[in-house]
Write a structure and sequence with these properties.
The model has no long low-confidence stretch (mean pLDDT 86). The protein is 31% helix and 23% strand. A hairpin with a 3-residue loop joins β2 and β3. By secondary structure, the protein is of the alpha+beta class.
Length: 71
């Protein structure tokens, strides 16, 4: 079931809130970047971050360590 994950569905049954959700994600991400400096953690390497492709992309290692520092 993990490989069948399609967050907003597809085709004629696509979620009507997809555009609102996408806008909210972009605004939230921009707000975080405005307030914090974001850097990669020590465990995050190029090998860990190589992409695994199913319906959604995710890191091969299954994680992405980020460090948030106040500006």
């Amino acid at each position: 079931m993990r490989e069948a994950y399609i967050p907003f569905s597809r085709g004629t049954r696509v979620c009507p809130g997809i555009y609102l959700a996408t806008m909210e994600l972009k605004l939230t991400f921009a707000s975080i970047l405005h307030k914090y400096q974001v850097t990669l953690g020590d465990r995050t390497t190029a090998d860990v971050m190589s992409r695994k492709d199913h319906f959604v992309l995710y890191p091969k290692g299954g994680f992405c360590d980020l460090v948030f520092t106040d500006l």
